[in-house]
Amino acid sequence: MEHSTKNAAGAGSTRPGSTSTKMLEGSLRSFNLFEILQFLRLGGMNGILSVSREDERIQLMFREGKIVNSSVFTHRQRLGELLLVRGAISRRDIDDILESQRTGEITAPLGQALLDRGLIDQETLAQTLRLQLEEEIWSLMGWNDGEFRFDPSDTVVETAPSIIEIEIEPLIIEGVRRQDEWKTITQHIGDDHAVPVPLAPETHHEPDTSLTPSEWRLLSLINGSLTVGSIVDRSGLGRFETYRILANFMQQGWITCEPYLQAEERTSEAASRRVGDPSFGSGTAGDNGGGRAWWKKAQRDTRNTAIADSHRTPVSLAAALANELLRNIQRRRIEDPWGCWPMTPLIWQRLTNRFPAADGIAVVGGLLDTDLFDRQWAVLTEPTVRTLLIEDTWAALVDLNDLLAEALAHALPPREWNKLCSQLVADLQASVVEEVGPLGMTATELVLILERQTNEEVSPNNGR
Prior knowledge:
Blueprint: E1 5-7, E2 22-27, H1 33-42, E3 47-53, E4 56-63, E5 66-70, H2 76-85, H3 91-103, H4 110-116, H5 122-140, E6 147-152, H6 154-159, H7 168-189, E7 195-198, H8 213-221, H9 228-235, H10 239-251, E8 255-258, H11 260-276, E9 310-311, H12 314-331, H13 345-351, E10 362-364, E11 367-369, H14 371-379, H15 383-411, H16 414-430, E12 432-433, H17 443-451
Parallel strand pairs: 9-12
Antiparallel strand pairs: 1-2, 2-6, 3-4, 3-6, 4-5, 7-8, 10-11
Helix pairs in contact: 1-7, 2-5, 7-10, 12-15, 16-17
């Protein structure tokens, strides 16, 4: 690497665990990450390795040739999502801590704050951080361009916290294996936008009980609508392991993968048939009819479900409120915060990028359709998956209702908004939710969203 190094100021020892006399920097076109990591390992180096391309940049901290910290650990959203899908914490835990960080009550990073509050233990945090870092490093190993720079430093490394300790050699061996296997896997699966679809039982042997818990977890997420990327986000297994298991399912003949547009056309046709088919909902859990007997008494387009109707879950109620707000915005031709009414799938995707499990809500004709969520809720049984599904979907809908209510409140005269708000509150209070969700998922929380946009407490009689 001599031609890619520059002299660092001063002289020093080259013994393991000390700083080198050289600062290394160069292009990934000349040296791949395997070679760089191996060099730092063999030298027992202390310091910080920075790897960057375009607007991406990751720093790895080395102590005696081992990785002990990383800038990856400041990515609060990624760490939080991993802990969520692994069932270690709840969405409310994360939101409470992020709010405390925003107000300055807490200054510690997310992981340390969770430890301080006793919400997770050290082992759980270490395992999750290791997965997060290993995924990032294996991703870096696939970079063919970019720049790297290693700054030797004993002082910085000695004073920095050591969160985990990762040996380089096993990481490199696994990285090489994954690179070789990745090309074959992606030939079967495609990319994050592909949609795994279960095959009919008569076309294959059904999965047996020898599947691992991870495999059963992934199998429960395959419903013909979720993309590979969505399944990766929910699995808690990392990208490579999720892809590997999906590829194995394909080889076993249990699933196939469709391009996203093809899957979208198929689900749209199914939704159209559902709206006009009086027999929809007569099947049993797990069949193509979609589910439980309660659908027999709910044979209607979910976009036309009124707020005051009976709702299976709090999600249905929140979606009904959002749809009523959307109708009022469209009816009054109100200019929206995004400048692109009627509502499109792209807007919903932007609003839910914090809540990946909320993609069970579709946008059809400018309104929200909860059919896919209802199907998922009916057939999913794994507690962690169910909790993440309803918590993420509820949180995304609360954010959306907040934005819609604000847009209407600012656009309408106060008297007209208060009148509309009073009617919506009356409808919410008259609604019935058959299956109570986790704490806080109530009509009362939706009423508070409306009341935040008024100067007075809203009651069913106000504004009339």
